[in-house]
Amino acid sequence: MNLSDVIRKNDDGIEVEIYVSPRSSKQGLDGFDEWRNRLIVRVRAPPLDGRANKEVEQLMKEITGMKSAVVKGMTDRRKTVFIEGNPDIIIKKLEESV
Q1: What is the pLDDT of residue 62?
Q2: Of 85, 90, 97, nearest to 64 (Cα)?
Q3: Which CATH architecture has domain 3-97?
Q4: What is the secondary structure of the chain as a DSSP string?
Q5: Who's near 54: CB < 8 A, 6+ residues apart?
Q6: Fewer beta carbons within 10 angstroms: which end of the chain, N or C?
Q7: What is the model's pTM?
Q8: pLDDT value of residue 1
């Protein structure tokens, strides 16, 4: 499995299908969940009051340098994150981090 299996490009950026693991001991991208067809994102925050979502958005911004937002799956571990910007640059930065 690779990054192209979990992203969709559009004119304004990309959407990334992720699986969030809250309350992790480490933070970051941690490979792929082949069964769910998603990128695994580990965050330290608990899944309370949107804290894990905010940490996911911040982590994606730190990795790509671009604005990001959870657009689907607000209360689920399976989420879609939209990252705004040049799709080719975003994909390159994500590939370097996986």
Answers
A1: 97
A2: 90
A3: 2-Layer Sandwich (3.30)
A4: --GGGSEEEETTEEEEEEEEE-S-SS-EEEEEETTTTEEEEE-SS-SSTTHHHHHHHHHHHHHHSS-EEEEE-TTSSEEEEEEES-HHHHHHHHHHH-
A5: 45
A6: N
A7: 0.93
A8: 87
pLDDT in tens, 42-69: 999 999 999 999 999 999 999 999 999 9
Q: Give backbone dihedrals phi and psi of 92, rounded to 5 degrees, phi first.
A: -60, -45
Share of the chain above pLDDT 70, in %: 100
- Please provide residue 69's backbone torsions phi and psi, each rounded to the nearest 5 degrees: -155, 140
Please check whether residue 15 is in contact with residue 82, taking contact to mean a CB–CB distance below 8 angstroms: yes
The interaxial angle of helices 51-64 and 87-97, nearest 10 deg, is 100
Q: Token digits for 63?
A: 């990795």
- Please provide residue 21's backbone torsions phi and psi, each rounded to the nearest 5 degrees: -115, 95
Q: Report the 10 Å Cβ neighbour count for 49.
A: 9
